[in-house]
Amino acid sequence: MAKVAGRSGYVAIGATASQVLGVNQWSLDYAVDMLETTDFSASGVAAFIPGVSRWGGTFSGYKDGVPIGLGTVNSVSIFLAESGTTNWSGIAYVAGIHPATNHDGIVSYAYDFQGTGALQVSSA
Q1: CA spacing 20 to 30 A to 79: which of 1, 93, 117, 120?
Q2: Of 41-50, 76-85, 115-124, minimum mean pLDDT range
Q3: How many other β-carbons are positioned within 10 Å of the β-carbon of residue 54?
């Protein structure tokens, strides 16, 4: 069974795909709405068809530089890489920012993003 280590994954944003420094984790949710089409001919068995797809997720890590902006005026091109094997990319809005610090002084940031338009998937 093949295995992939995520130690060389990263997040990049913007037209120039600048790597976001300090990121040590990202996650992506990619789903499709399932629309129920059950009618009387279904004999009591539910039927569905795929509807609108949507995607979004989070990334987080240690603060290293200026935080990314929030809101509708800050749509970003986002590029999520898995160890150079699979890349996910598209246009997204930064929907939430979650700064945190601890008694040991390490400042971290977590970001929520919401994709708009198609999500592109490419494999090496």
Answers
A1: 1
A2: 76-85
A3: 14
